[in-house]
Amino acid sequence: MTLSVALSLDKLTPQRLLLASVAAALLTMALKTGAWWLTGSVGLLADAMESLVNLSSAMFGLWMVTIAQKPADQAHPQGHHKAEYFSSGFEGALIVVAAAAIVWAAWPHLWEPQPLQRLDWGLGLSVVSSAINGGLAWVMLRAARHHRSIALEADGRHLITDVWTSAGVVLGIAAVWLTGWLWLDPVVAIAMALNILREGFKLLWRSSQGLMDEAIEPEAMAQVHQTLAKFAQPTVRFDHLSSRRSGQRNFLYMHMHMPPDWSLRRAAALRGEVEQALMAEVPGLRATIELLPSDVEAHIDDHVDQIEKAKP
Questions:
Q1: What CATH class is the domain 218-307?
Q2: Which residues belong to CATH 3.30.70.1350 in the chain?
């Protein structure tokens, strides 16, 4: 990522992007509702219902991101970063509800298909709304990686899903237009519901794993090992690594063993260098290192802490 792009993404804060998502949801919901009103297509009605989910999730995400960026306090000494996982889970739950509502609305039309009208205008409005969502999703996903925000990632991925489902609706209605097979309209709506249902369950799973203190990503842990290898010596070693993710923050805990005759000043200086190197290499990382003499082993009961060890 170039410096100019990084600087521009710094200006696109999660709050600003989620405010843009709220505005886009209002606009696309109006466009899709208009498309449904003109055509009578249950597929476009389903698409409009998903825009309502976009609006609700963007508003809730904005609230959670605002909470997540509050500084640590006495009641929350580790900060409020996990609030973003509630945003992801809420969005996943809304998607599941919307998928069920779409199937409920489309199911009767399988047996009693309704004629469609003004398909040219309906398709045009749907394409415009998809272009808006697609452009915003592209920006949000890039900003999500830059800010390490699961709330932005969840909203961006949902918008991408919305674009694909809208494309499916457009193709389905175009097929109805060309063939006259009215039953295609509810079939496309139900297929769209099943597609967004899959995305909803993925968001729910991702949120649950974050709330359960999931370990940091394998790529980040590989960077940790590479950094520690630069400091490892025959008389200095690292072990008992454990990690967890909390929203935009990654936390790492470990032991550093050094010769017992080292002064505390020398050991603390090396620990400071290691912590700074780790936090510079892995964005958002907070490293905590416990100092131990090389002839002392820590006895930890939890076998998970024994699994993750630094490579020599």
A1: alpha beta
A2: 218-307
Mark out the alpha helices in the chain (DSSP H runs): 3-11, 14-39, 42-68, 83-111, 119-147, 150-179, 184-211, 218-231, 264-281, 303-307
**CATH 1.20.1510.10 domain span(s) along the chain:** 3-211
- 218 exposure class (CB count in 10 Å sphere: 0-12, 13-18, 19+): exposed
| pLDDT (0 to 100) of residue 269 | 92
Tokens of 14: 């999660």
Give the global pTM.
Answer: 0.62
Q: In this structure, how many other beta carbons lie within 10 angstroms of the beta carbon of residue 274?
A: 20
Q: Which residues pair with 287 in a beta bridge?
A: 252
Count of alpha carbons within 13 Å of 108, Cβ hemisphere only?
6
Question: What mean pLDDT is predicted for residues 199-225?
Answer: 78
| CATH hierarchy code of domain 3-211 | 1.20.1510.10
Q: What are phi and psi of 298, to 5 degrees?
A: -85, 140
